[in-house]
Design goal:
The chain has 16 helices and three strands. The protein is mainly alpha-helical. Helix 14 runs antiparallel to helix 15.
Length: 401
Amino acid sequence: MPEYRYVARNEIGVKVEGVLDAANESEAAATISTGGLFPISISPVIQQVVTGNVRRVKGELLAAFYSQLSDLLRGGVPLLRSLKILHDQTSNINFKFVLDNVYRRVESGDTLSDAMGRYQVVFGEMGVQMVRAGSEGGFLEESLNHVAAHTEAQDDLRGRIIGALVYPVLLFVFMVVIVLAIMVFIVPKFEVIFNALRSRGELPVMTEWLLFISNRMTYILPILTPLIFIGFVWYSFWRATDRGRWTLDRLKLRVPVAGKVYEGFAIARFCRVLGTLLKNGVPIVKSLDIAGDAIGNKILLSAIQKASEKISSGMRLATPLAESGCFPKSLTEMIAVAEESNTLDSVLISVSDSLEKRNWRSLDLAVKFIEPVMLILLGLIVLFLVMALLLPMLNMANIAN
């Protein structure tokens, strides 16, 4: 069960602090009051383990765990025995440690979702919430299958994007290395040769620029390298803060072309998870909370949370989503019609399929566009270098003749 940290006062006003297990805050408050205390504040204890021993695991391994656990439970194997089987057969030391602790927590009386919730760095908030909803709604096996499919799809998406960007990135790195090598090691050797033309004022402007940049690089690179390292370390800490995540998520949505693709995949995930939960009878407010965790963007999550609050007050889903301005008008119109016809779950899953297909086409076109742009940029840089070095030589040849 979840743990809650409380601050209370006894009958004579002395402050008392402690931790107790309870299903929710109301139950925790009732337990405290039963003990003759007056609760002042109650807050959940962070259940996520944050240690150097626990790291993320590959999506492929996590998807296999969810799928196999679902198969074992559907086959009538008890939960504890299923966890023991999966623990014994995994070869990943990190994941074996996590499963061992999950097993022990379930054995001591915790629910599966609470035990997994202590390792959200491994299972993810969405996975934990889907398991909780499946356990409470009586469709745990199906919920695990959906989490497995979602995890596998995310891993496949990540792999396809990385695979699509390998060639452009390698081309860019190759271009940077070659240009730096030419500017630092080759261009300075030509400066002595071009001094005669410079003294007569006949050195081309393009060559002057090239020599100027090359001379500065010998001083800038030793300073720039540690600055880049410091900037990378600062960025790693900054992006882990709430402000950093908000800023980055906002930038992701505003990047030309790529922002629309990123937004499309995020909305597709949201629609699929929400449709799946509604199909299995999970209330819409709770479904929105779980689906919001799958969207992976703070800006879109904020819009979903506001929509959830308005739905609690009696409003339909399409209206607050449309008011947020974060969701396409075509999507909100389809949701409005689906709510009228009571087919919201099936429409959301269908929308997710069409969004994913459209996003893959857009991603493929964007990657195909990047490759020629990189080649053209590389060609222009090489042309500049060749002309800057060749023109003075042609001038010297004309003078010699």
